[in-house]
């Protein structure tokens, strides 16, 4: 197989659209589909062919990449694509689907003769657009040459976690990493909410921790989105973060550990979503600290 591939991208939200653009810029032929076609249409300006259906998008593909909302969505879309999928095609499944769903997706791949790669990514809008994602991947060594050009186009680095995508080792690592990301995001919001309630200038907090072990670039970035009212466009939306938080809590429950902070964080994100912040950056979980009337 040559380094220039035909890649189908199913799902062109924040992450999928950026990945499709970077694949096209790397010289690959890219065919994309999205449930709402209008979100995929701008990709045509970057040389991406926009398809009307998943089956149309995967015709002639060397690699199929799915970047959808959750496991059920990924399974539904790949089923729609199935009539046009050739046995032996590599399926790079980058949706954060959860451990149980990965098994179901891998079963589908096995039934249809697809080479399955569990390949979630770490990063948000900016690193996605820059092709600087961290790819967490599990899949057979003998099939990795087929997907390496895809990972190189969308990511700065690939971390291989295992030989069997069905085991979900990459997804497990993604959930562990996201548990830290979401905890930090929620902590930043609560810190700012408490500062507001106590009449403390947030800058005095940042001055106090500057340069020390408590200082953190990610904390400053998320707090800055709130303080500067830059919650749109979202780097990672409240609704998607809420979904990932639920997957983290479920993973803990099914494996015998209590994740009290993750559970509370999931509730905060769900509350912010219910308040109308679903499509804003996940930093908007800040508003869950207030009654809607006093959230301003």
Annotate the secondary structure layout.
Blueprint: E1 6-10, H1 14-25, E2 29-33, H2 37-40, E3 49-50, H3 54-58, E4 63-66, H4 71-81, E5 90-93, H5 99-111, E6 115-118, E7 121-122, H6 125-129, E8 133-138, H7 144-154, E9 155-162, H8 169-198, H9 202-209, H10 217-227, H11 238-254, H12 260-277
Parallel strand pairs: 1-2, 1-4, 2-3, 4-5, 5-6, 8-9
Antiparallel strand pairs: 7-8
Helix pairs in contact: 4-5, 8-10, 8-11, 8-12, 11-12
Walk me through this protein's architecture.
The structure is a single chain. This protein is an alpha/beta fold and 296 residues long. The chain contains twelve helices and nine strands. The strands form two sheets. A six-stranded parallel sheet has the order 3-2-1-4-5-6, with helices on both faces. Helix 8 packs across helix 10 (217-227), helix 8 crosses helix 11 and helix 8 (169-198) packs across helix 12 (260-277). The mean pLDDT is 96.
């Amino acid at each position: 197989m040559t380094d220039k591939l035909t890649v189908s991208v199913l799902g062109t939200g924040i992450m999928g659209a950026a990945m499709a653009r970077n694949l096209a810029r790397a010289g690959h032929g890219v065919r994309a589909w999205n449930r709402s076609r209008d979100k995929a249409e701008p990709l045509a300006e970057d040389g991406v062919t926009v398809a009307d259906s998943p089956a149309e998008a995967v015709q002639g593909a060397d690699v199929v990449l799915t970047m959808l909302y959750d496991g059920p969505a990924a399974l539904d879309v790949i089923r729609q694509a199935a009539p046009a999928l050739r046995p032996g095609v590599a399926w790079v499944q980058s949706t954060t689907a959860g451990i149980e769903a990965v098994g179901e997706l891998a079963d589908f791949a096995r039934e249809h003769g697809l080479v399955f790669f569990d390949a979630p990514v770490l990063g948000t809008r900016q690193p996605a657009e820059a092709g600087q994602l961290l790819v967490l991947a599990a899949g057979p060594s003998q099939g990795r040459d087929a997907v390496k050009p895809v990972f190189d186009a969308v990511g700065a680095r690939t971390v291989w976690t295992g030989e069997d995508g069905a085991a979900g080792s990459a997804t497990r690592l993604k959930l562990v990493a996201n548990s830290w990301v979401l905890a930090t995001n929620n902590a930043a919001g609560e810190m700012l909410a408490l500062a507001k309630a106590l009449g403390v200038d947030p800058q005095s907090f940042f001055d106090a921790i500057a340069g020390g072990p408590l200082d953190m670039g990610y904390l400053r970035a998320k707090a800055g989105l709130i303080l500067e009212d830059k919650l749109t466009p979202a780097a990672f939306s409240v609704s998607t973060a809420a979904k990932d938080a639920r997957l983290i809590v479920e993973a803990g429950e099914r494996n015998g550990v209590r994740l009290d902070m993750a559970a509370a964080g999931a509730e905060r994100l769900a509350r912010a979503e219910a308040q109308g912040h679903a499509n804003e950056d996940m930093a908007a979980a800040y508003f869950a600290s207030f009654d809607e009337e006093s959230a301003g």
